[in-house]
Specification:
The chain is α+β, with helices and mostly antiparallel strands. The chain folds into two domains: 39 residues; 87 residues, Sandwich (Immunoglobulin-like). The protein is 20% helix and 31% strand. The strands form two sheets. A four-stranded antiparallel β-sheet has the order 4-3-6-7, with no helix packed on it. Strands 1-2-5 form a three-stranded antiparallel β-sheet. The model has no long low-confidence stretch (mean pLDDT 85).
Length: 133
């Protein structure tokens, strides 16, 4: 069943089957949208040995800007950049100084030296007991 924004009708008794169909139709629409956008969102990956890579199916990126936040700085901060050819990088290149109690990292692609974001932010990878925002 396709999503129908007119259902359920105003002041009608709720039907679990109708509600389930509506929710499933919305879920299907979200999954289709995610499949369309997935190639445009970088995926930051860390393996068990501390090697970091980035997967991206969109247009080639020259640089990847790394953003971090940690227990001493809860604001996302640009911590530098890597060229695509620099990957894989090591933990020591990604971890904020002074080995914080918790930290998070994400990245986005940018053009050559222009410091403008050209991709969406990647997934966020978290370490330690990150507090609720």
């Amino acid at each position: 069943m396709a999503f129908n924004p007119a259902l359920p009708a105003d002041h009608s008794p709720l039907s679990s089957a109708e509600m389930r169909s509506q929710l499933n139709a919305l879920n299907d629409q979200l999954a289709a949208l995610q499949a369309q956008l997935a190639p445009l969102v970088p995926q930051l990956i860390r393996d068990a040995t501390g090697h970091w890579t980035v997967a991206y199916a969109g247009p080639a990126q020259v640089y990847w800007t790394v953003w971090v936040r940690w227990d001493g700085n809860g604001v996302w901060t640009n911590s530098g950049e890597f060229e695509t050819t620099d990957f894989p990088v090591q933990d020591g290149d990604m971890i904020p100084a002074d080995a914080p109690l918790w930290w998070q990292v994400k990245l986005c692609g940018e053009g050559a030296g222009d410091a403008k974001e050209h991709t969406a932010f990647s997934n966020i990878i978290s370490f330690g007991p990150v507090p609720d925002a």
